């Protein structure tokens, strides 16, 4: 799995740097609504990485290498998790920087709550999209990705247009860790479906 | 020990079927798999490496059932080269080496570097900017840098110029100097296989029509040149193909089934394969 992880890092460095830069900018802007975009675009990562493999047909060589089917699938999930964790850490670090320079603390309970909500939605999106991408490939799987991004973007626009307070009210009944748990549960449920789908694709 | 054992292997696709393929490649031998486009060579290779599902049959590779959980570890001992190389093309050769170094437990970085130098491959140029020959050489360097016991190559020399082809064949000859190393190589270019192989398999429309030791095949079959009207005198079971021309006919026959006084010539492997493929019996 380490080899695949390294390969994906190189691929991102080679062809996905523009995407990373945009995502980093979203994460570093001191406004949670932009962090939401950054988190949701994490799902695009899987598409970029899988598309790169399909383009050079590395996806057909992969089942012949000493890497289990499960590792191939799990690596994509882990890559997404690590990426979203790094984005979150960067967003928090940016807030800390603002605090040290401007003298006001923007990270409060509501901030962390909203951030957990974004991460939860991103993980659920990933849990929905990855099984389709792994079973049907990026050509067919792209459709469901576009639909899910449209749904979440629409939701984000709704939040920007005044729904922010409503969301906070709804979220006030839930705790941040519960949201993260929901995201983690969605991922955990999605992994075996993806493994089964990937095995079926290879067969 | 056998390097590869294939028993009654069958795979059906819409419009194509790989039927009841069986052969055994002993350890330390080189097998050439010949067949026209669409004959099923790549499908057979995918099935041997468990990279495709099968409808029936069994495959054992390096004494391990390729459907067992232990086969992933066995793949550590197998080097694979596919047509087009199929390596991540946004990486350079050095990065490809690092990735494969993490994938194969017995990866030897020094051997890889040595191959890059020997094959004149730039370390920092992206794979997508390589020529086809360079890509194949890089794939070969990857396959040879983890002390593999079995090398499986699918059309490694197809579309390459004779100089690169010769270079690749030379490396394969070096690889098999050690007795425990085996090779399965598929190719259209029969002359390449004739130089290299101990065993030859001929796959035609999903069926393995011929599989035997190369020398035995060359001894067993012969070319009979004779006037067309004398073709009927040949026993039907002895004739595997006929080519009719202006000045007479040419038949591929089994030596032991024809009269010893018949004027016979030694065929090349290519002659035998062409006659089998055309199957133009009298």
Structure notes:
The complex is a heterodimer of chains A (203) and B (282). With 203 residues, chain A is mainly alpha-helical. Chain A has one domain. Chain A is built from eight helices and no strands. The mean pLDDT of chain A is 83. Chain B is α/β, with parallel strands linked by helices and 282 residues long. Chain B folds into two domains: 2-205, Rossmann fold; 217-278. Helix content of chain B is 30%, strand content 30%. Chain B has nine helices and 14 strands. In chain B, the strands form three sheets. A six-stranded mixed beta sheet of chain B has the order 6-7-8-3-9-10, with helices on both faces. The termini of chain B are far apart. At the A-B interface, helix 1, helix 4 and helix 5 of A face helix 2 and helix 3 of B.
Shape-level CATH architecture of the largest domain in chain B: 3-Layer(aba) Sandwich
Any idea how many domains of chain A? 1
Order of helices and strands of chain A: HHHHHHHH
Computed over alpha carbons, the radius of gyration of chain A is 18 Å
Quaternary assembly = heterodimer
Write down the secondary-structure element order of chain B: EEEHEEHEHHHEHEHEEHEEEEH
The dominant shape of chain B is globular
Could you provide a short overview of the structure?
Chain A is mainly alpha-helical. Helix content of chain A is 87%, strand content 0%.
Give the helices and strands, then pairings.
The complex is a heterodimer of chains A (203) and B (282).
Chain A: H1 2-15, H2 17-28, H3 32-40, H4 42-55, H5 58-61, H6 69-102, H7 109-171, H8 176-202
Helix pairs in contact in A: 1-6, 2-3, 2-6, 3-7, 4-6, 4-7, 6-7, 6-8, 7-8
Chain B: E1 2-13, E2 16-26, E3 30-34, H1 41-48, E4 56-61, E5 64-65, H2 71-74, E6 78-81, H3 93-103, H4 109-118, H5 132-144, E7 150-154, H6 162-175, E8 182-187, H7 190-196, E9 199-204, E10 207-213, H8 214-220, E11 221-226, E12 239-245, E13 248-254, E14 264-265, H9 269-278
Parallel strand pairs in B: 3-8, 3-9, 6-7, 7-8
Antiparallel strand pairs in B: 1-2, 1-4, 4-5, 9-10, 11-13, 11-14, 12-13
Helix pairs in contact in B: 4-5, 5-6
């Amino acid at each position: 799995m380490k080899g695949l992880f390294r390969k994906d890092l190189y691929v991102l460095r080679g062809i996905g740097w523009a995407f990373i830069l945009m995502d980093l900018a979203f994460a570093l802007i001191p406004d949670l609504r932009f962090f939401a975009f950054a988190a949701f675009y994490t799902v695009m990562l899987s598409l970029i990485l899988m598309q790169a493999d399909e383009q050079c047909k590395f996806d057909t060589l992969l089942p012949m290498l000493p890497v289990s089917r499960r590792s191939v699938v799990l690596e994509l999930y882990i890559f997404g998790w690590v990426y979203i964790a790094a984005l979150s850490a960067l967003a928090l670090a940016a807030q800390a920087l603002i605090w040290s320079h401007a003298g006001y603390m923007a990270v409060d309970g509501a901030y962390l709550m909203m951030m957990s909500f974004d991460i939860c939605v991103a993980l659920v999106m990933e849990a929905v999209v990855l099984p389709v991408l792994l079973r049907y490939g990026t050509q067919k799987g792209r459709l469901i990705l576009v639909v899910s991004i449209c749904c979440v973007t629409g939701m984000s626009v709704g939040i920007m247009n005044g729904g922010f307070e409503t969301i906070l009210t709804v979220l006030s009944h839930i705790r941040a860790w519960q949201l993260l748990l929901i995201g983690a549960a969605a991922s955990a449920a999605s992994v075996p479906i993806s493994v089964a789908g990937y095995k079926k694709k290879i067969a | 020990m056998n390097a590869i054992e294939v028993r009654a292997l069958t795979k059906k696709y819409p419009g194509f079927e790989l039927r009841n393929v069986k052969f055994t490649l002993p350890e330390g031998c080189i097998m050439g798999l010949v067949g026209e486009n669409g004959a099923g060579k790549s499908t057979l290779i995918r099935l041997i490496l468990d990279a495709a599902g099968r409808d029936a049959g069994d495959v054992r590779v390096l004494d391990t059932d390729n459907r067992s959980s232990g086969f992933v570890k066995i793949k550590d001992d197998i080097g694979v080269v596919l047509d087009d190389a199929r390596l991540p093309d946004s990486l350079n050769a050095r990065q490809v080496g690092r990735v494969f170094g993490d994938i194969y437990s017995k990866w030897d970085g020094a051997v890889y570097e040595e191959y890059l130098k020997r094959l004149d491959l730039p370390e920092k140029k992206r794979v997508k900017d390589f020529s086809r020959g360079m890509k194949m050489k890089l794939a070969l360097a990857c396959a040879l840098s983890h002390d593999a016991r079995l090398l499986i190559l699918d059309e490694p020399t197809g579309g390459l110029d004779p100089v690169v082809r010769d270079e690749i064949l030379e490396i394969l000859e070096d690889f098999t100097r050690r007795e425990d190393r085996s090779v399965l190589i598929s190719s259209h270019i029969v002359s390449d296989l004739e130089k290299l192989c101990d065993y030859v398999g001929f796959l035609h429309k999903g069926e393995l029509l011929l599989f035997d030791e190369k020398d035995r095949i060359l001894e067993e079959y012969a070319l009979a040149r004779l006037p067309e009207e004398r073709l009927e005198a040949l026993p039907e079971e002895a004739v595997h193909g006929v080519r009719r021309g202006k000045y007479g006919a040419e038949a591929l026959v089994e030596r032991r089934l024809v009269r010893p006084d018949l004027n016979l010539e030694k065929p090349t492997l290519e002659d035998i394969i062409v006659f089998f493929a055309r199957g133009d019996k009298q």
